């Protein structure tokens, strides 16, 4: 997370997390849930978040994602029943960053 706050180099563990997240979030509902989870995590970082670094994180890690990374990217609301074990996987992945 320090890299996203302009504090230090990009850790290898961060790129591992980006790669894992990209591999487990394959369906549209999974990607929407991942987006919601990441937006929540980003908002917890407050105004110190470097949006440019956040947007460029997949590329910096050599991970190709088929959608733009932005706090402004709209995420359609998911119904509670659509939230799967992906949430736990995302929380684990984010805890490793």
Automatic annotation (TrEMBL):
**Membrane-traversing stretches:** none
Residue intervals of the Bifunctional inhibitor/plant lipid transfer protein/seed storage helical domain:
3-67
- The reply to whether Signal figures as a keyword in the UniProt entry is no
Q: Which Pfam families match?
A: Tryp_alpha_amyl
**Could you give a GO molecular-function term held by this entry?**
lipid binding
Source species, domain of life: Eukaryota
Which InterPro entries does this UniProt record tie to the protein?
Bifun_inhib/LTP/seed_sf (IPR036312), Bifunc_inhib/LTP/seed_store (IPR016140), Plant_nsLTP (IPR000528)
Family of this protein:
Belongs to the plant LTP family.
Protein's name in the database: Non-specific lipid-transfer protein
- Organism, scientific name: Brassica oleracea var. oleracea
């Amino acid at each position: 997370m320090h890299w996203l706050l302009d504090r230090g180099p990009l850790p290898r563990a961060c790129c591992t997390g980006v790669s894992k997240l990209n591999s487990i979030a394959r369906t549209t509902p999974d990607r929407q849930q991942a987006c919601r989870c990441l937006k929540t995590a980003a908002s917890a970082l407050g105004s110190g978040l470097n949006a440019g670094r956040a947007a460029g994180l997949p590329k910096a890690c050599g991970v190709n994602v088929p959608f733009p990374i932005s706090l402004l990217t709209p995420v359609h609301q998911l119904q509670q029943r659509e939230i799967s074990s992906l949430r736990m996987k995302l929380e684990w992945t984010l805890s490793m960053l």
